[in-house]
Sequence to fold (227 residues):
Amino acid sequence: GDSVTQMEGPVTLSEEAFLTINCTYTATGYPSLFWYVQYPGEGLQLLLKATKADDKGSNKGFEATYRKETTSFHLEKGSVQVSDSAVYFCALSKGFGNEKLTFGTGTRLTIIP
Amino acid sequence: DTEVTQTPKHLVMGMTNKKSLKCEQHMGHRAMYWYKQKAKKPPELMFVYSYEKLSINESVPSRFSPECPNSSLLNLHLHALQPEDSALYLCASSQEDFSYNEQFFGPGTRLTVL
Fold:
């Protein structure tokens, strides 16, 4: 079946450091890929998405490129802030409408001042 | 309005109680979802409603009973729960006719079963 593998956490970085959170997937066909962020005590927010190979999703300084050849969708940010501390989930979806999201295990990110 | 709202924010109930969780969206989305999230885990899909009809039930115990009264509302009725059902319950919605199923999540209801 479909699956998403994320970099194990937790990840701790200093403010203004460069961030990479690795995500690879296994799926047949042409899935859409997502990064969701969950701040403490809150629900999930869609951070960015990519729907086809070579698409780059970007939002709030975060970027991820859909690489079909390496089945990857790594999340990057050039300079992290304390406010970026959260849990990040990589996810994929295969179909139209109500197909379920397949999530990775999540990566907890802590940014220290 | 681009948000999904959930009530209550917190709920504590005994194993013999009956309670309900409520979810509402006004984005015109025709697919709505219930997820369960345990601490330090990703969300697990429970139910999917598509055009107000139950389309996916991920083998959830019958003590959880979903209901979709109309296209904007989704309820989850709870009865005779167990302590292991304590979790964050998340509602989400998406446009049925989108090809990539972008789901919008609510803030969740944190449920504690005593």
